[in-house]
């Protein structure tokens, strides 16, 4: 079996993941909690209070899992490597995925940077093929730009060789 790719993401990506996950968990929590809270105000039924407590408990458990437990594991499992012929990406905690993307198949390379990534000085590189997009998140902006440019150059060279 082939060795894992050697390059890792920037460690600051763990905080980006935590912020993203906290936002989504909080939005989901509020969408579930507020209707039951209104129902409790309108009609004081004991089952509504129990439901509210269960939703709050699931929210706290979700925060612990997604903000404390998963980011370090996710960080360790995310790896990538750029060689002369292909881009190798390995990721996943339970379901591990490995992508070998030959440069002959690459159609486009991009960098992306949302507000949270920008706050941490990070960017993502996206490599597009006919089969879809593959993203490498959490690289320092200058590293992401170098990786994007190198991947685009290798894709151009691969296209010329055909």
UniProtKB/TrEMBL annotation:
<dbReference type="InterPro" id="IPR005182">
    <property type="entry name" value="YdbS-like_PH"/>
</dbReference>
<keyword id="KW-0472">Membrane</keyword>
<feature type="transmembrane region" description="Helical">
    <location>
        <begin position="21"/>
        <end position="41"/>
    </location>
</feature>
<dbReference type="Pfam" id="PF03703">
    <property type="entry name" value="bPH_2"/>
</dbReference>
<feature type="domain" description="YdbS-like PH">
    <location>
        <begin position="77"/>
        <end position="149"/>
    </location>
</feature>
<keyword id="KW-1133">Transmembrane helix</keyword>
<protein>
    <recommendedName>
        <fullName>YdbS-like PH domain-containing protein</fullName>
    </recommendedName>
</protein>
<feature type="transmembrane region" description="Helical">
    <location>
        <begin position="47"/>
        <end position="70"/>
    </location>
</feature>
<keyword id="KW-0812">Transmembrane</keyword>
